[in-house]
């Protein structure tokens, strides 16, 4: 049984859940405890007690701990990548790549711990010196989703620790295995007891405590739009600092002058890999009419050729859907698309394989209107809607016709259109001739409109959330 890590000790619970492999429902990955309200209280108490000393720790102490975590993640990427693929369902190469990214994130923020900057300025008044410095917030509650069960925790935990905060971490209840493995590595990194705490369990218990407890200074949350908005409303009423990463309905624009091979690769990689279960997936493919028929025909052919199967099989390109409820949601949107009048070109069916799992064939809808639900609502599965556009201006307007604004892309040979699109599309991230899904770990991540709230994640911009600015005046 895998326990929570609280106050420097592994702590049990009577409430235990089984972690089941979506590729093979007979494969139990492990048993993991669920935290009680008392467990969460103990974790918050230990974090608060550890914070005064940790907030004054040296950059070298923080560097050493984070660098050690990153080194072990990279050394064990194959082993932990297999665990990730078993519990979440993304393919083994994707799982290994995600663990490697987590290791790189920890190493990046190890370096950032040595580069916490401030400013010394002359005052506008004579005989006074001004200093501007950054200080840690205190106790940070971290809530992460199931679709990237080790990378997203890494890009929240690493900067929180690097800037001198203490952490209470709640992973998604669906995928505790990768989070526990990360916590086990962190437990041996030399951090003082209470600086980092793992509390696995339900959001109704753990997340609610983060919102209500005054010991939590800030909450960083990645997950569904309804839950995120609830977190924001309730936490803001208590004047907590909040960072949200929520949904996406990301456009990929394909103009008539695009390289067809590049555009098809961007569409397939962006829409279907990781089983479409990523907030940066290109679920709205907007294609200019001059290339529309050729593009949709070839996209259908290549989508039908994708190999859906067990996440650990070497020939699998698309793994299973993560859980039964997500599979039902994907299937329901196929029916919604049909009822709305979109043309289903391929896919959208539950598949049978050698093992019982949540297998689903990637789907392509054509002749989709931007007003349709399948073009506006986040499905979070391998379902792509192809929308015709008259020209570049029409395509840009369609790209912006969404309540979300996370990632966006354009495939074109035109420098004029690429430049204009980068400036005019209403999204936090823009890709030109590369898939909308797939980002670097050392640069900002985040969106606009309904996709994000608060400062950016990742890269040096993470300091805007995990630190507070202090201005000090000293008379000479």
Automatic annotation (TrEMBL):
State if Oxidoreductase is listed as a keyword.
Answer: yes
Which UniProt keywords are present, listed alphabetically?
Oxidoreductase
Q: Which domain of life is it from?
A: Bacteria
The molecular function terms of the Gene Ontology recorded here are: oxidoreductase activity, acting on the aldehyde or oxo group of donors, NAD or NADP as acceptor
Looking at the record, the residues that make up the Aldehyde dehydrogenase domain are 13-471
One of its Pfam families is Aldedh
SUPFAM superfamilies (UniProt xref): ALDH-like
Q: Does the keyword Cytoplasm apply?
A: no
Active-site positions on this chain: 245
What family is reported?
Answer: Belongs to the aldehyde dehydrogenase family.
| Stated name of the protein | Aldehyde dehydrogenase (NAD+)
């Amino acid at each position: 049984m895998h326990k929570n890590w609280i106050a420097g000790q592994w702590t049990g619970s009577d409430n235990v859940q089984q972690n089941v492999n979506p590729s093979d429902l007979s494969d139990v990955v492990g048993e993991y405890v669920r935290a009680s309200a008392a467990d969460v209280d103990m974790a918050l108490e230990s974090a608060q007690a550890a914070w005064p000393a940790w907030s004054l720790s040296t950059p070298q102490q923080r560097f050493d701990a984070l660098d050690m975590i990153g080194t072990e993640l990279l050394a064990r990427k194959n082993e932990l990548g297999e665990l990730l693929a078993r519990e979440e369902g993304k393919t083994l190469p994707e799982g290994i790549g995600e663990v490697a990214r987590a290791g790189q994130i920890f190493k990046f923020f190890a370096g950032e711990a040595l580069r916490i900057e401030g400013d010394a300025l002359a005052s506008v008044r004579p005989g006074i010196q001004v200093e501007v410095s950054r200080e840690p917030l205190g106790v940070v509650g971290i809530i992460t989703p199931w679709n990237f069960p080790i990378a997203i925790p890494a890009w929240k935990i690493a900067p929180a620790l690097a800037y001198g905060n203490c952490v209470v971490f709640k992973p998604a209840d669906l995928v505790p295995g990768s989070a526990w493995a990360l916590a086990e590595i962190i437990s041996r990194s030399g951090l003082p007891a209470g600086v980092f705490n793992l509390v696995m369990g339900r959001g109704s218990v753990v997340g609610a405590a983060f919102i209500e407890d005054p010991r939590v200074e800030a909450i960083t949350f990645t997950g569904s739009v309804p839950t995120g908005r609830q977190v924001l409303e309730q936490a803001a009423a208590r004047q907590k600092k909040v960072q949200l990463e929520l949904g996406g309905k990301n456009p990929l624009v394909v103009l008539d002058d695009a390289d067809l091979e590049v555009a098809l690769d961007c569409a397939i990689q962006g829409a279907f890999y990781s089983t479409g279960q990523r907030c940066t997936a290109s679920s709205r493919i907007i294609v200019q009419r001059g290339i529309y028929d050729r593009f949709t025909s070839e996209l259908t052919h290549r989508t039908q050729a994708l190999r859906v199967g067990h996440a650990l099989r070497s020939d699998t390109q698309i793994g299973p859907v993560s859980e039964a409820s997500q599979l039902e949601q994907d299937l329901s949107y196929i029916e919604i698309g049909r009822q709305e009048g979109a043309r289903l070109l391929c896919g959208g069916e539950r598949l049978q394989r050698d093992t019982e799992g949540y297998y689903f064939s990637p789907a392509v809808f054509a002749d989709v209107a931007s007003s349709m639900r399948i073009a506006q609502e986040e499905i979070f599965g391998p379902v792509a809607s192809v929308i015709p556009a008259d020209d570049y201006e029409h395509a840009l307007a369609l790209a912006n016709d969404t309540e979300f604004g996370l990632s966006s892309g354009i495939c074109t040979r035109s420098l004029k259109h690429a430049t204009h699109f980068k400036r005019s599309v209403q999204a936090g991230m823009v890709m030109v001739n590369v898939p909308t899904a797939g980002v670097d770990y050392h640069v900002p991540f985040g969106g606009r409109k309904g996709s994000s709230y608060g400062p950016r994640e990742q890269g040096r911009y993470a300091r805007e959330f995990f630190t507070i600015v202090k201005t000090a005046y000293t008379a000479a």
